[in-house]
Write a structure and sequence with these properties.
alpha/beta, 23 strands, binds flavin-adenine dinucleotide, FAD/NAD-bd_sf, Amino_oxidase
Length: 341
């Protein structure tokens, strides 16, 4: 049986695994490795250290689809809506620049539930804390090296951001054509910090909005009453709040420890929301690769580095940073996998 390794348990990797299973059923053995301790990637949902508060989405917040993607990706929207993973987002998002025909969806169980849904459908063998460090061609297979060991696979799909793909050791560098290398090197990402604040059960936010885009602050660009966004504000659990920093702030503080940056963000947040109650716990995340600013140009949604054995790169570096971008990339990687396997 053909052994396929998908590196990355984010949206692109999980959907790719799910579609591959649906198309090729028992003809493939699908393995997913992720360096993190859980699935989701940049669609991560963070739990508080205790069960007194709701969880919070530290990365992607909600899904906005255009009318044309709503049509071309109809089957995915319909699947996620009927599984209860998506629900229309109809509460107030202050300052949102919305185009006619766009539709927003939120995830009652958090954004990582989208990834978990596709992973559960994939039947893939999922391994966390498997950090890939290099790829070596061994005849008709790839030896994939990770921290703590290596394994052989017949085909490999890499779904991390392009700058992380370029950090891999081994034969990848020689196999990339000059043009492919330039294309990968040209990919640029924004950087941001995200802070989640978890509150005790007696806290009720006094502001009317679910989320607010902030335009006049050098540090904070977005605040969400995360549990309210998901209609999850139920008695017994405190609300959660998420703050995203602006791109210039993220760039300026990128090389600093998140522990040193967190107090700066909280100070700005308290200026924007004076009288905000004291949270029980706080989690800060540095997104070095947040959203793609410059993707690989004129690209079908993936890059084939080598045909046999197959090595494909996919993810939002090859399209754009949102749900539909990852769906495009997963579909495009699937077409190559199907042809090759
Ligand atoms: C702050 C923020 C806000 C956003 N807001 C939205 C939004 O509101 N709506 C929206 O649709 N999108 C949003 N996005 C974009 C969206 O989250 C991404 O486009 C999408 O999640 C990318 O998915 P992916 O699977 O391509 O990559 P990722 O989610 O990055 O998945 C790649 C995975 O690879 C793993 N990995 C990396 N290197 C290695 C390695 N060497 N070995 C093993 N594993 C590795 C990572 O741990 C990760 O899990 C946001 C992103 C961020 C950061």
């Amino acid at each position: 049986m053909t052994r396929v390794l998908i590196v990355g348990a984010g949206l692109t990797g999980s959907l790719c695994a799910c579609l591959l299973r649906r198309e090729m059923q028992s003809k493939v053995h699908i393995v997913v490795w992720d360096k993190a301790r859980g699935s989701g990637g940049r669609m991560s949902t963070s739990r508080p250290p205790d069960s007194l508060s709701h969880s919070a989405d530290l990365g992607a917040q909600y899904v906005t689809t255009t009318s044309s993607y709503a049509l071309s990706h109809f089957r995915f929207y319909s699947e996620l809506l009927s599984a209860g993973v998506f629900q229309p987002l109809d509460s107030l998002v202050e300052g949102q620049k919305h185009k006619d025909g766009n539709q927003d969806y939120m995830t009652p169980l958090g954004m990582s539930s989208v990834v978990k849904h596709f992973l559960s459908q994939s039947g893939a063998h999922l391994f966390f804390e498997h950090h890939v460090t290099g790829l070596y061609r061994r005849g008709a297979s790839w030896e994939v090296q990770r921290k703590g060991g290596s394994e052989m696979f017949d085909a490999v799909v890499l779904t991390m951001p392009a700058p992380q793909i370029l950090q891999l050791l081994g034969d990848l560098d020689q196999m990339l054509s000059v043009q492919q290398k330039q294309q990968l090197e040209g990919v640029e990402y924004s950087s941001r910090f995200a802070v989640a604040l978890f509150f005790p059960p007696d806290v009720v936010f006094s502001f009317p909005w679910t989320a607010r885009y902030v335009t006049d602050n050098p540090c904070v660009c977005y605040i969400a009453a995360d549990s309210r966004k998901r209609n999850a504000d139920v008695p017994g659990r405190g609300p959660s709040l998420v703050v995203h920093t602006s791109i210039p702030f993220g760039r300026k503080h990128l090389e600093e420890d998140k522990e040193d940056v967190q107090p700066i963000i909280l100070k700005e947040l308290n200026k924007l929301l004076p009288g905000l109650p004291q949270p029980i716990s706080i989690k800060c995340q540095k997104w070095r690769y947040s959203q793609v600013l410059t993707s690989v140009p004129d690209c079908p949604g993936h890059m084939t580095v080598h045909d046999r054995p197959l090595l494909v790169c996919a993810g939002d570096s090859f399209v754009h940073s949102n749900f539909d971008g990852c769906v495009e990339s997963a579909l495009s990687a699937l077409s190559v996998l199907k042809d090759s396997l």
